Amino acid sequence: MGAPRLVEYWEQDPCAPRYRDEDKRVIDTLRAPGAAPPPMSAGLGVTIEAKFTVGEYQVLILSAKDSTGLGTWLTQQKYRIPEGVEPLLRPYVESGSKFFVAKVDPTKVTFDRDGRAALSPLRFHYDSEELALPIRLGLASSSGMQDLIVNILAPHQRYEVSNYQNVTIPTNIDVGEAVKGKFGAFYAALFDRTIEKNPGAVVTEYAWQAATCDPCPGPALNQRDFAALGADVLTGPEDKPAAYTGYDLVLTRLHARYGKTLTDDLRFREAQPIAGGREFVQNGQGGLEEGAQPAAQNNFQGRYAIRHPWTGPIRCEHPARKVWGGPPAEIAQQAGFQVPGVQPAVGLAFAPRGEVQLSRVVLRDIPELGIVAGAAATAPAAGPAAGPAAGPAAGSATAPSAAPAARPAGKARSGCGCATSGGADVTGGALLLGFGLIACRRRQRRRAGV
C-alpha cells in the first residue's frame, strides 16, 4: 500500500465536453501459561517467560540478568548468533527488555518461484515508555550496509524519527516510457541519490489515510487488515487489550539505510500532516505540486508518471490541454491493448543498481538532488551511502532534533507473543510495522512489537 508507484496517463480529447468530478478522497493471540517456568540454566540467569509453536517457528520469550549469560545460553541451545554480540545485548538486558527468539523448522518452510525461502511474518506486542525500534541488535549479523522499511499505523497521525534527519522522497516526477519496464531500478536509483544527498537521513516515502489511496497499487486496507496488523490490541487496559475499530488510521512508510557505525536505535515521534504526489493539485504555475507541503491531513506519496500527449485532431476554438486520464477509446480498443495498472516499486533489495541514469529518464529537474533533466549523467555512486546520522532536516516537512547519544532501550512493561500469516486514549496510539514489526501506544505507554 505504501510502496512508491508508477502510473500511466493519456491526454484526453482537448475538445471533449468536461464534467466536474467529485473530489476523491482475528488474530488469535498465543499466550504462555500464567506462571513462568524456572530458568533453563540458573547459572546463566536466563528465564523462559513464554514458549509456543506457530507455523514454521518455535518461539521463546526470554528475560536475562546478564548479557554474557544470555549469549552463552543461546549458543548452548543451538541458536546461531555471531561472535561479539554481547556488547549489543548489554543495554537491552540492563533495561529489563524481553527477548523474542525463534527457531525455524525447515520441514515447514515454503519457497517462492525463485527458490528463496518465504518465511511467514511474526507479530507480538508489548508496553514501553517510548515508540522505538531496536535495530542495533541486527548489526551483529550485518555484513555492511542494510535497508529497513518501517510502516506505522496510527489514528489521525503520521510519524517520523526523532533522533535522525528526516527527508521526504522527491515525488510527482514525470518520466520517460523506458521506465515502465525498469521501475524498480528507477526508484532504487532515486532513493540512492536521496541518501547520497542526505547522508544518514530516514526517508518518508508515504503518509496517507490508510483506508484510502489515489492511485491504488492494490486493494485499500480494511478492518480485517487493520486487525491483522495489530489494531486488535491497540486500545483497552494493559492486561486486556481491545480492538480499535476506527477508519481514521494513517499509514506512514519510512525507509532507512544504515551500517555498523549506527549508534542508536530508531526512535519515533508524532509529526504534522504533509501532502504531495497528487495529480489534481496545482502548484500555481500551471504544473503539479512538487515535494512535501504542510497540510490539514496526510496525503503524501511517492508517485511517478508516464504521460502520452494527445495526437489526434483538435477541432475546437478553445481546446483544454493537459487533461489526463485513461487511454482514449481508439487506443483502448486496439487489438491486444491492455490498460496498464498502477505499478508499485517492490523487491527493491533485488533491484539492479546502475541500470537507470536519472537525468536521462526524468522529464523535469530535481533541484533538491542536483539532477538536471536531459543532462549528461555522472557515474553512479560505488555503493550505498552512510547510515543514519544526526543533521539538519533539509527537505523535510519538520525539523528533527539533534541525534541523542546512544542510550539503553526503553524498559518493556509487559509482553506476550503471537504470530500471523501474512490505552484508552486511542488518539495517541500507533501500530509500527516493519517486516512484521508492530507497535502501539496507549496514554504514556507505547505498546510495541515485532
Structure write-up:
The protein is mainly β and 450 residues long. The chain has one domain. The protein is 11% helix and 28% strand. The chain contains six helices and 25 strands. The strands form six sheets. Strands 9, 11, 13, 14, 16, 17, 18 and 23 form an eight-stranded mixed sheet that branches. Strands 1, 12, 19, 20 and 21 form a five-stranded mixed sheet that branches. Strand 24 and strand 25 form a beta hairpin. The longest helix is centred in the middle third of the chain and has 15 residues. The C terminus is likely disordered.
State the main characteristics.
450 residues, mainly beta, eight-stranded mixed β-sheet, five-stranded mixed β-sheet, 6 helices, 25 strands, 28% strand, disordered C terminus
Secondary structure elements and their pairing?
Blueprint: E1 5-11, E2 46-54, E3 57-64, H1 67-76, H2 86-94, E4 99-104, E5 110-111, E6 117-118, E7 122-128, E8 132-133, E9 146-155, E10 158-161, E11 166-168, E12 173-174, H3 183-197, E13 202-209, H4 223-228, E14 249-258, E15 266-271, E16 274-276, E17 293-294, E18 299-301, E19 303-308, E20 324-325, H5 329-332, E21 343-344, H6 358-361, E22 412-419, E23 431-433, E24 438-442, E25 445-449
Parallel strand pairs: 1-19, 11-13, 12-19, 16-18
Antiparallel strand pairs: 1-20, 1-21, 2-3, 3-4, 5-6, 7-22, 7-25, 8-15, 9-14, 9-23, 10-15, 13-14, 13-18, 16-17, 24-25
Helix pairs in contact: 1-2
